[in-house]
Amino acid sequence: MAKRIQFHTHGGPEVLEYVDFEPAAPGPKEVLVRNKAIGVNFIETYFRTGLYPTPSMPSGLGNEGAGLVEAVGSEVTHVKVGDRVAYGTGPLGSYADVHLIPEANLAKLPDDISFEQAAAVMLKGLTVQYLFRQTYEIRPEEIILFHAAAGGVGSIACQWANALGVKLIGTVSSAEKAAHAKALGAWEIIDYSKEDVAKRVSELTDGKKVSVVYDGVGKDTWETSLNCLELRGLLVSFGNASGPVSGVNLQILAQKGSLYVTRPTLGSYANTPQALQAMADEVFAMVASGKVKVDNIQQYALKDAGKAQTELSARRTIGSMILVP
Which of 289, 308, 306, 286 is nearest to 297 (CA)? Predict the structure, then answer.
């Protein structure tokens, strides 16, 4: 009998249950993965609270993990039993000892990347890859703004931007987080608890502002992000940490300088097995080269998933978190 985290009703971390379950056998194109490490991401709180719907109840939780292939379906050709693999696009249920995954959602994991590193970097690294390399391809010496620069995604973004010669301005909520983001390669840091972000961005750019804002916070930073953009700039809204952006009047984009807004998702980029593996390979190469370091990973036991989510929701975390079965 395996263990997993599940919930019967929406709510806070207290609704999460640590229970026994019997995993199903793989279907023709499915793979059963024995998790060695499991990623913890803010998106999981959206499912737990009901912001994002779940296919059924009770529901598992989590989309990311790394481990060993334990069993394969009859039509699986990409991986075999014993292979090291990682995944970041679900389906829900990675908070478990074992997880049943469509073959198309798995990437092969090279030997020089640990399971812990893969679980900490897979979803976040793929996110930064599509943000920086596909949604808007950032260029050397370009100045950009990235909210929540000390978080899991932000920590990778600071390093990746620095490796590309890009000047990343990061927003954070404390001196400790400012020091963390700065150490990872951020060009400048704005503590939004003490400073006016739009005003400071204008000062740092001699009034020009920035060509692109990457915003994973959502509702609380929506207008600030628009105010930081130069003429015909792009707001990439890729998350809802403070709640979803709603009731948008498109006329505001015209008023603030013919601005562009996009709301991308990883699934729209890693939409084929080939695309997923290519993106993952670039992430793993950045980690293997040392350009993106995945160190000081905060680890919790699988049974303590509620505690991990409490810390995440309170924004007391720095860097990445994982669960260990």
Answer: 308
Q: Is 52 exposed, middle or buried (0-12, 13-18, 19+ CB in 10 A)?
A: middle
Q: pLDDT, tens digit, for every residue of 196-216?
A: 999 999 999 999 999 999 998
DSSP H or E stretch at residue 125 = helix 115-130
The H-or-E segment that residue 305 falls in is helix 305-313
Do the strands 17-21 and 2-7 form a parallel or antiparallel pair, or are they unpaired?
antiparallel
Rg (CA), the chain: 20
pTM value is 0.88
Whether the per-residue pLDDT at 319 is higher than 70: the answer is no
Query: 220, exposed or middle or buried, with CB in 10 Å at 0-12, 13-18, 19+?
Result: middle
Cβ-count burial 30-50 (b if 16+ within 10 Å, e if not): bbbbbbbbbbbbbbbbbbbee
pLDDT value of position 25: 94
Q: How many CB atoms lie within 10 A of CB 246?
A: 9
| Sign of the alpha-carbon dihedral angle for 114, 115, 118, 121 | negative
Closest CA to 78 of 101, 108, 100, 99: 108
Contact in structure between 52 and 46 (CB atoms under 8 Å)? yes
Judge contact between 90 and 63, C-beta under 8 A: yes
CA separation for the pair 86, 71 (Å, rounded) = 15
212 backbone dihedrals φ, ψ, rounded to 5°: -150, 140
Residues 179-195 have pLDDT tens digits of: 999 999 999 999 998 89
173: confidence class by pLDDT, cuts 50, 70, 90: confident
